[in-house]
């Protein structure tokens, strides 16, 4: 093969960066055949240059900006996180006419628009399959395979840490803290697990999914977010009694309000999911995304959502596509024209609620509790009352679909109700038709 | 928008063609925004031109060759089947510099090489996402998302008719004929169901999947094939007792023989699948494909595998991508260099077997039956013997992994064994690790 090599710079040499560098070396002949020209690793940006990084020391540099500006670099792979200095490096690369592959979900959830515009101006590619759900192809199906269809809804389990913790709680009956401790011990949770357990990571991914599914700029700040730290073993017991389990869902939806205006809703919260729903059986550190489109119906994508090798697979797929475009002188699909739908406020979203509360055990309580729902037009689907060891009783209510505003008001009223000692849990119920 | 319109010709006006024509009309503004230029339907090829086809009669023509040669046609959508005259029309279109989107699996399973070369010579796109598993993105993930990874195995349920029949048999205990009758009554099976129930359709799809997954030309004739017509309710009973169900699988695998040579195996047969395997829970007319790749691990894609709307969704995705390439003056990825691995003969493939036989009920039979397996080096994992109402007994044997050659020889010897009245069923067992 006599084609001019394609020069690659890798920013970051963590799990993913090391794996990408390894694949570029070890699969060189295969990659060259697929691309039509060899890939050549021209440099790797690291925080600290040393000779124990598993790569020739002359490839290493701690000067990111210089590396992404080099003339012999055609493609930049950014896997260093966090938002800065990655944002600046990517912009420099794009402005310099280099295509960029990134796995940086926090950055994308904040700056997709800015980055996409820079890529558009420079007529180069910006790919980010690895930013959502690891090796599972989700971005390319949404942007390309469904390009002629209308996406209605995307709902996924896109955070492996929380899914591991919830799966543990479900299968062993453990409480949140001990399931988190297990996850940490196994390396599934970071020392500071906040980004995962409070839903920030899932919200960043929801922002990216909503942006590409609905051709609308959605940032992480637009995403309604609740974490999993308050989920109790009792919630799992109730879920089981209702034929459900509990999952942290990232949901992006096209909603039409009572004013006829189409809006985009993006939200992350733990929800009860019926065991018959495909997402209910996605356990441990696995990820899955369900896409509903007008013509295609319901599609599901399932696989390993994290880890060096799976994430590197997604990066390499993007890298090969960007390199092929480079060789052929073409480029991948440009950014779609944006529909720019407004973001839907949470209050207009219709969901079902599961409310668990401790009440004083005396006649008439159930009826007066039920009245609080009825007063706000919230219809009850199911009620269960259990006497407890001490004087109280536990009431679990599952509602039909109602607006989030009406449901929140109901819960606020219950908290003030004199027979209600405590509202223990409020969770939404997803994946059912009524 | 002042861009020049992209002219589209649709060949065939069945379920899929009508739906494609409808989406081109009804989603015109949306499609134009995504493509950067409007799509315009320039003509539709039908067998018989008449004014009751739901489209202006001046768009219709029965002259396919003339339509695909028209100067104002940039893109051709072929959804008319069968192999001819589709093959000739597609070649004319490609040679005339038009990009082609086709859903014609029978044609692709026979002529991918010829068509891909014609597209390559003309520097145009040939897309065929709709040919395998309807709206489920499988082709694009394999060719693009996993372009930097090494695919090890693809196993899927890609025929909705047989999956409906097998799901029926499993859930109701019906026999094959009445489940087929149900499928026909519901429109899931054609008047002549041979292509589905004998596995020809699944084999064509396996050929396409194997070709793109392993960069090797595989035609339908290279695919080992068994249908589902001999599956009995007793097989489902045995499967259940073993914690399994029965599915018609299309399997494509990279295998390394004892000679160290890498080969591609493509095969279709009904197999026992453990209930814990993701494919076991794919029921009714749904399709699913599991892909195992070196870095990505195991991925699953799930959705509606057939029907006018889902198939049209896949066609429209390809159409938008081809149109975008047209507008930008680039084109999609060219065909990969082909690895051209040889096809593996079935005899060297290692699988597990389930063998059910009726034997004479006398002492020593089980031992002499087991000896037939042992003689050929086939290790037995599980045996169950049941006395039957009349004089015979039923023996079910599940083997460990062994070559298909050794297993076939064993079955032939059992058929000749004097204590074996009949070998009732021979099925493979997939989806387990030993």
TrEMBL record, chains A, B:
Domain spans labelled ACT: 354-428
Class of the enzyme per the UniProt entry, highest EC level: oxidoreductase
Binding residues annotated for NADP(+), in chain numbering: 11-18
Binding site for L-homoserine: 190
Keyword terms: Amino-acid biosynthesis, Metal-binding, Methionine biosynthesis, NAD, NADP, Oxidoreductase, Sodium, Threonine biosynthesis
Pfam families: ACT, Homoserine_dh, NAD_binding_3
GO biological process: methionine biosynthetic process; threonine biosynthetic process
Obligatory cofactor(s): a metal cation
InterPro entries: ACT-like_dom_sf (IPR045865), ACT_dom (IPR002912), Asp/hSer_DH_NAD-bd (IPR005106), HDH (IPR016204), HDH_cat (IPR001342), HDH_CS (IPR019811), NAD(P)-bd_dom_sf (IPR036291)
Pathway noted in the entry: Amino-acid biosynthesis; L-methionine biosynthesis via de novo pathway; L-homoserine from L-aspartate: step 3/3; Amino-acid biosynthesis; L-threonine biosynthesis; L-threonine from L-aspartate: step 3/5
Residues annotated as binding NADPH: 105
Coiled-coil regions listed: none
Catalytic site positions: 205 (proton donor)
Catalysis: reaction(s): L-homoserine + NAD(+) = L-aspartate 4-semialdehyde + NADH + H(+); L-homoserine + NADP(+) = L-aspartate 4-semialdehyde + NADPH + H(+)
Function: Catalyzes the conversion of L-aspartate-beta-semialdehyde (L-Asa) to L-homoserine (L-Hse), the third step in the biosynthesis of threonine and methionine from aspartate.
Family per similarity comment: Belongs to the homoserine dehydrogenase family.
Full protein name: Homoserine dehydrogenase
Organism expressing this protein natively: Mycolicibacterium aromaticivorans JS19b1 = JCM 16368
Native organism taxonomy: Bacteria, Bacillati, Actinomycetota, Actinomycetes, Mycobacteriales
